[in-house]
Amino acid sequence: MKVLIKVFIYTIKNCTFAKIIFVREKLLNWLIFITLCVIWGSSFILMKIGLGDKMDVLSPYHVASLRLLSAGVVLLPFAIKAFKHIPSNKRVLVILSGLLGSFFPAYLFCIAETKIDSSLAGIMNALTPLFVIVTGISFFQMRIKMRQLIGILVGFIGLCLLILAGNSISLQYFGYAFLVLLATLLYGVNVNLVSKHMQGIGSLEIASMAFVFLILPCILILYFTGYFALPLEKSVYLTSTLASAVLGIGGTAIASVLFYMLVKRAGALFSSMVTYGIPFVAIAWGIWGGEQVNALQVCCLCIILGGVYMVNKK
After folding, report:
1. CA–CA gap between residue 203 and residue 314 (Å, rounded)
2. Domain range spanning residue 109?
3. What are the two backbone dihedrals, phi and then psi, of residue 66, each rounded to the nearest 5 degrees?
4. Are 303 and 160 in contact (CB under 8 A)?
5. Per mean pLDDT, which range of 46-50, 114-118, 203-207 is the poorest?
6. How far apart are CA 281 and CA 45, in angstroms?
7. Across 27-41, 192-206, 294-308, which has the greatest mean pLDDT?
8. Which of 6, 112, 227, 258 stands 20 to 30 A from 33 (CA)?
9. pLDDT tens figures, 28-44
10. CA-CA distance, 97 to 65, in Å (whole number)?
11. Cβ proximity of 260 and 208 under 8 Å
């Protein structure tokens, strides 16, 4: 009888300990999740700060180059190990992934935000999962289900309504909103490229090698666009440079590492849900920065996210 009691007490203690560990792991996953939403959702307002209040401090090319350059410098220690682990026949694809998934979108978003609100850019960024499906069907022989097709249609209906909602996009600046769509299209191509041709290569290895490769092009762009000739000792230029660097270090380098951790800990499905949190953080920052966000735009965001949910639902 005493033995049974001891076994019972031992079982209870171990079950309680297992529950504590489980809850702690869950809380840590959610902490990483919320951190990613805040970091990536803040990227759009940091671009605005980098450009300056009147878009006359740094150019879009300066902000994007500083972002990529700072990310590359931070990820430099990981690049040596990554170079050894990535097969030689995949290195060109990794560089291409860096161009499609980071280099071109960084410039497209910065150019777009010279004319459209950061909150609107954050909302339109939510279309990325839809473009993953669209580009997968178009270029990577992905099979589509009827539910996913309906989700794509719902998402694009939300986009069309968003364009009509308020005065955030005038006909004069419609081309700048199209740059955001082009960036999300490139994101979609990159996701399919990585998932189809880079199985077995870690996300951190892909990111570190890709960003380190971009260091030299970014330095050249900064040089030829006159960044180093600016009065960088002035406070406005220091603020914009710092915002651009934080955008690269936090929004690109650290966020990539955190996302890699979250995928390993909680799986790809839970990690992909970050898409739903980013636009709301971007909207909150936009309102704080004095941008006009109306209820119809928020409704359009919900329609877009509804389409994203239909596309990704298991």
Report:
1. 23
2. 2-312
3. -65, -35
4. no
5. 203-207
6. 10
7. 27-41
8. 112
9. 888 988 898 899 888 88
10. 17
11. no
